Structure prediction request, 242 residues.
Amino acid sequence: MTEQSNNSTRGYIELSGPDSRKFLQGQVTCDMTTLSQEQSIYGAQCTPKGRIIFLFKASCDEQNNIILQTHSSIVEIAIASLKKYAVFFKTKIVQIDGQPETPELTDLQRLRNGSADVTADTTDMFIPQMLNLDAQGYISFKKGCYTGQEIVARAHYRGAVKRRMHHLQLTASVLPTLGAEILSPEGKAIGNIVSAAKVDDQTIEVLAVLADKSRDSTEIIIAGQSYQVSHLPLPYDIPSGP
Prediction:
């Protein structure tokens, strides 16, 4: 467990140039053709093996530049990943200082919305469905190909998702390390911590990916410490199959 609050500011990436939207359309899970100055969208960039590199909220400014809001710890990794695929496109990718028009959600608010963060500690750990991105509309199954699309589509149409994200409450005074392994009382690995936030000095809430067979567990072990857990609702239904 760590004493850090994990309350970090958001990071911002700007893509400018005539090919920016076309480039992202072939890289991310959401349909970039639906993005406008009036309509933000959410998505993820994945590895060729379908693992999430970073999550983002995409918006479009008055100059038609695309702004990706993500977790601050992942910005450099995200930019490096995007640039690796951008060499044949007329797009410029840079980090910028964000000036959100509305107050940012706190980590606890975001967590209670069922919205995970992927950080530098958890990049390349989860496929999109593990974090319930399909339930939240972060994935378009009608758009064309993008990096990792084959794996994501296979998991969707074959119902091959054996681990899903759940909302838990623990009695604890410090937050778990993001990405920390979760064990059953018998010592079997059953999942990982995705996001965590304090409610008060003795209570925390987490989003945790759990194996289907362990999703109703009332006792878990994190970093050698046993915890009784309560299961809290998510604001969306978790898909049960294709």
The two ends are 37 Å apart (CA to CA). Residues 113 and 235 are 6 Å apart (CA to CA). Residues 10-158 form a domain with the Gyrase A; domain 2 fold (CATH 3.30.1360.120). The longest strand covers residues 189-200.
